[in-house]
Write a structure and sequence with these properties.
Elements: H1 2-23, H2 33-40, E1 46-48, E2 54-56, H3 81-91
Antiparallel strand pairs: 1-2
Length: about 100
């Protein structure tokens, strides 16, 4: 478990460093938590409950699907080009790891 936590932390750090590029937002958008939340929450599965709160869906997530249609589709899941970019450039190219 300790190793898995370390790997998750390392991956999160790598993604944060390249988040603006991955999501097509400006670097300045990534500096403040409220702006990040507003710009990205819908793309990463936030479902508003209509009462000022909500939760994250683990399956109805735009970032997981190619040509997202608003709900989980097993035929398009895990085919989003952004995910392919993450796999190729962040995990296989050493210059992006640090």
């Amino acid at each position: 478990m300790k190793g898995m936590k370390a790997q998750r932390s390392n991956t999160a750090t790598r993604l944060r460093r390249h988040c603006a590029v991955l999501f097509g937002v400006s670097e300045s958008d990534m500096l403040q938590a409220d702006i990040r939340r507003e710009k990205l929450r819908g793309r990463i599965g936030w479902v508003d409950n209509g009462q000022g709160g909500g939760s994250y869906s683990s399956v109805d997530v735009e970032i997981l699907h190619k040509n997202y249609s608003g709900s989980y589709n097993f035929e398009t899941a895990f085919l989003n080009p952004i995910l392919m970019w993450v796999s190729t450039y962040l995990f296989e190219r050493p210059e992006f790891v640090n």
